[in-house]
Amino acid sequence: MISWCSCLVIFCLLQASHRASGVAYNITPSEPLFPNQTLVSSGNIFELGFFTLSGSENQYIAIRERPLAYTDQSAKLTIGSDGNLKLMDGQENIVWSTNVYSRSNYTSAVLLDSGNFVLQDGNYGEIWGSFEDPTDTLLPTMEVGLNVRTGVKKSLISWRSDSDPFPGSFSTGMTSGTPPHPFTWNGSTPYWRGGQWDKSKFIGIPNMDQSYKTGFTVQQDPQQGTTYYSINRYDIFLYMFISPRGSLTIMRWDDGAKVWLMEWAAPNNTCEIYGTCGPFGVCNSLNSPICRCIDGFVPKSNEEWNGGNWIRGCVREMELNCQKNTSTSISTNVKKDAFWQMSQMKLPDSGDYVSDVEDEEGCESWCRSNCSCLAYSYVSTIGCMVWSKDLIDLEEFPTAGEDLFVRVAHIKAGGSRHRAVIISLSTIAGIMFFAVFVFVLCKWRANKTGNLSKIRRLLDSVDTLEKSTEPTQGNAWQEQLKQDDLPELTLYSFDSILLATNKFSTTSKLGQGGFGSVYKGKLKDGKEVGVKRLSSASAQGVEEFKNEIILISKLQHRNLVKLMGYCIEGEEKILVYEYLSNKSLDTFLFGWSFLSRYNYFSIIYFLP
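The chain above was modelled as a monomer; its predicted structure follows.
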């Protein structure tokens, strides 16, 4: 049967001016519809009639494959003697017919307020409806999908161009798998995919309204083999259509402005076009370039990839351990493959649903025990999904998305840690170089401007006291420092330092250098500190001690250790530093949650 053409002249909220002598409310054998008339729904919401596009010599109403001549004003849409709805040209030739069986010859055709054009019998029972044969437009309550048992598909099919309603190359429909996906095809090639249905939304559409603003519903009946989706909203006027260029668009009527507004469209960017980055490639519209390979994979063709042609995708860099040809006795010593976690992802196409798995741990266990399983994902509203084919149509979202776990060789999974160590050492070297540079710069500026005169006068006096042989040397140090106290520095007693470091026990010792040892201590107030005890046998004298106070007092930075105070008693010269209680700096520089693999290589590349 030739599909009914939904290329109707449709007006929402018809004005009274439309109700002329050419308006009809039903079609009967004695009251056909002519080109100078329109059929109006009872609530004056939809209007149907013959129409001609600008610059065209054809007119349309029922079928877009076989239009009528514009000059054929004797054409009519009528009810035949067999009760079928028929389109006839001026020579009484049947151009199109509903071609359905009816027990009653008394039938009529009406346009419902839903937009469905129906043929009904004498008891107003529906015999045929235009919603059963959609073209490029989906109205509320209209269904698009398929029946795998009968092979019947209900798909939206685009126009050939904006001025030609003939069927175009783009179509939109549903897959029959569990969970189902919405697709747009260009011919037979996938063009766009909306992702898996999770009982409230398609998870491949990150901005899909979860509050049912668009009212999408999916009905799947495995017993009957049917899968359909529809728009079930009656409080607003909206419709979906597939454009001649493959854009799936939702339009909403703004009653205040009396205009149609675009609510949503897909694909909206290059990453939303199916398989932009090829197998095992990930697309992110915020990155440049937008495509990258999954960790553990490399471009199949470096030349094409670097040239911006990513369609061939990526290949595995290292063979999976479970796929290696090893004997049973040897394979027990082979390290197991690992799973690389990818977050905020649009899950790939061609997955399988594992119905007998109840939680994420079970999903991982199932995939780990099956070498053919290349990836898995557990979504609470769907269940366990696994992939045994190439991972394609992967997209990384800035927000939302799901976790995908990709199987990689064990050595490859651990290789990232090795890279992190190398990068850590390189970065620390860079920081040390920067610290030395800052120290030299600060000292030069201080000597030039005299900003350190106060501290230098203090320490010069300390130098004089150090050279004296009087038995009250330690007390003289203390008195001088008290008189000229340094800002924000605390003078600690030697007893408090002994108590804090457990008498400089070996368990408190953190390390030892050329000028003395460093201990971890805990003050009476519970604060943890680092204690540097200058060795009396070291070569460091008053000048070095002086420079260290100058440097640390003035050179304060969030990534450098802060000098809290000092202790001078007898021959003891001690510096008290802030203790790094939150682990070392590399934890914050190289934690996996802070930097991506791309940023690591950027850092190591730009290190001086």
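The two ends are 73 Å apart (CA to CA).
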